[in-house]
Amino acid sequence: MPFYRAALPDVTSCAGEDAAFGLAGGAGMVAVRVQDLISPAGRGLGKDGRSALVAAGAGRIATGDLVVFLRPVAVAAAVVRRDGRVQAAGHPADHARLGVAEDRLDVLTGRPDMIGQLAAAVALQGKVKGKARRAMTTALAIRFILLMTLMPDADYCEVTAALLGDLAAVPWQRPYRLPAATVICAWREAVGCEPLEQLRDLVLAGLDAEHREHDYRAVRAGDLDVCSTGGSLTRVPGTPANREAFGSAGTADDSSPCPQLRELRLSDASTRATLAVATGPSGAAAGGSRDKGEAEQVLLDRALKDCPQVFTPGRLWVMDRNFPGVPRVQRLLATGTHVLIRVKDGIALRRTGEFAPDGSYLAEISGGGVTLTIRVIEYMVSVAGADAPELFALITDLTDHAAYPAQILAAAYHWRWIGSETCLKEAKSAISGAGPSTGPMLRSQSPGLVAQEHAAWVISTELARAAARAAAAVAVPARKGRRAGQMVHPREISFTAARRAVVASTRSGAATASLPAALTAATRDAILAGLARRRVITDRDRHRDRKTKARLGFPAGGPHLATTTAATQISVCLPAAA
After folding, report:
1. What is the DSSP letter of 321?
2. Which of 414, 131, 102 is nearest to 270 (CA)?
3. CA nearest 318: which of 411, 423, 422?
4. Which of 162, 188, 228, 542 could form a disulfide with 507 if both were Cys (CB 3.0 to 4.6 A apart)?
């Protein structure tokens, strides 16, 4: 016999589950009178208290009735116990998703449930063995690693709580508790770095294809897309394994407080989207197995070898003074792409022709047994009537001064800073405070997990930028101001707001896999519409010296700070004995 009364509703019913899904998706909320909520187990909530309440009827709601408004969390098959308790079949990991970020991920890779497909092919290692259902699954572990790199102030348990959200409160058929930090560590090691690196490559390939298909240009150099390269050092925890694998830069004796990973990002200057990335050690190995690190030039050579698809004839690569090397420039040009490179003082440029009307001229540059004919653009910069203290000299393979005037190329060089330095600073804001020290830092204690976390960091920051581009596409142009009536460009959407929107959409649980498609689509559209209003002011033409506003309060401590562990003793001052 049933444990609760089934009453015929006074309101319009839907014909079948599909219609009910449509109604739930369109409304987004379910309203139930408080008096209709009962326990299916009779008094109390039955054995162990693990049961959902049920609606005993669906009578017409009258004005003044107390109503509970419920937001759907998951849709699952019911499991009814002997005492009447109603629980959910399945596992919360089957429902957890990354909200708007995972929506962008599936779009970029062109595969629905990309993480699920990737997880199915992972061979777990280490302490996690077999196919038994545990607190974690491979797909949940991958989603955790991605979300972790967007939540620098959260520990492992807080990240897991944000990932599962209200799913952890659902009375599942098997009791579920959030995994402890030690369990998560074991799963990270079991997954390894290869799946995340594979996913990173798929995402970067999707970004490359997206930027070929869409005209996102905020800066124009003729018919070319302006792209930039920029190197960076990212600190990692100072474990012996990390110090051996990555070394440190800036100190000949590896006395830097933390080892550092060196990376080179190749990005689109207009959207700051990463198109390719190369990584390597920053210094000599602590054990002597490596006498030096890998400079940015070496990483560029690796990118040329591993990512030749991004060096296309339709792109102009803007580089600073660290990269020139004539053989390297020759290899770049051999791909069909174009370059605009600032050269250092003292490099010989032998003029071979007359000055063009725009002031540029053809010259030869030699080195490494290679001689190239290039075009030289020299210019000065002044701000508020004051000249910058140095001459800028750019070399390029674009020899047609009519199609690519010197003034246009000189202005394009400024976008190297926007496309690379700002790109890296935005990305590092997502890991600022994540490690055992202040500032941007990864949190992983071993080289393998550093590689895993770095790949996840690249993916997550690019998914946040992809969400910003999706928001810009639906943004309403400003009604007043200097950009009134103009289309909203992706770089006008705040990266910090995009990162927070990804975390919020995951934590809310409104994009879980089992919810009606209409509901998840409405939630996604609402998030993007809100993000579209979170804009920043661009091109403010602000300038200041590259100096810190405040000096450090403490001197650098080096890699081995002395620590004393002892109980504190208090000696109360007494009057001197007579």
Report:
1. T
2. 414
3. 411
4. 162
- Cα-based angle 115, 118, 120 (whole degrees, multiple of 5): 110
Q: What is the pLDDT of residues 313-344, one digit of tens each?
A: 999 999 998 766 899 999 999 999 999 999 98
The DSSP call for residue 328 is H
CB atoms within 10 A of CB 126: 13
Is 362 in contact with 351 (CB distance < 8 Å)?
yes
Q: DSSP class of residue 537?
A: -
Q: How far is CA 469 from CA 138, 216, 223, 310, 527, in A?
A: 29, 9, 22, 20, 13
Q: How far separated are the first and last CA of the chain, in Å rounded?
A: 93
Task: Give me the mean pLDDT over the 80-109 stretch.
Answer: 92
Between CA 36 and CA 14 the distance in angstroms is 19
What mean pLDDT is predicted for residues 300-304? 93
Secondary structure (3-state) at 307? coil
Instruction: List CB contacts of 450: < 8 A, sequence separation 6 or more.
Output: 236, 242, 245, 246, 261, 442, 444
Higher-confidence position of 226 and 252: 226
In contact, 40 and 86? CB cutoff 8 Å: yes
As a whole-number percent, the residues of the chain with pLDDT over 90 amount to 53
For residue 369, give both structure tokens. 């047994």
Residue 351 near residue 368, CB atoms below 8 Å: no
Domain boundaries, the chain: 16-89, 220-448
Question: What are the DSSP E strand ranges found in 154-221?
Answer: none
Please tell us whether the domain made up of 220-448 is placed in CATH 3.90.350.
yes
Tell me the residue type at 343.
V
Cβ proximity of 42 and 3 under 8 Å: yes
Task: Specify the 3-state DSSP secondary structure of 265.
Answer: strand
Residue type, 328: R
Nearest to 70 by CA among 501, 519, 531: 519
> Looking at residues 30-47, what average pLDDT do you find?
86
Instruction: Report whether pLDDT(13) > 50.
Output: no
Phi, psi of 184 (to 5 degrees): -65, -40
User: Rounded to whole angstroms, how far apart are CA atoms 185 and 39?
Assistant: 39
Long-range Cβ pairs for the range 214-219 (8 Å, 24+) = 216/268, 216/270, 216/271, 216/469, 216/489, 216/490, 217/270, 218/269, 218/270, 218/271, 218/489, 218/491, 219/269, 219/270, 219/411, 219/412, 219/415
**Gyration radius of the chain over CA positions:** 29
DSSP for 164-179 reads HGGGGGS-BSS---PP
SS3 95: coil
Q: What is the pLDDT of residues 487-517, one digit of tens each?
A: 899 999 999 999 999 999 998 865 677 887 8
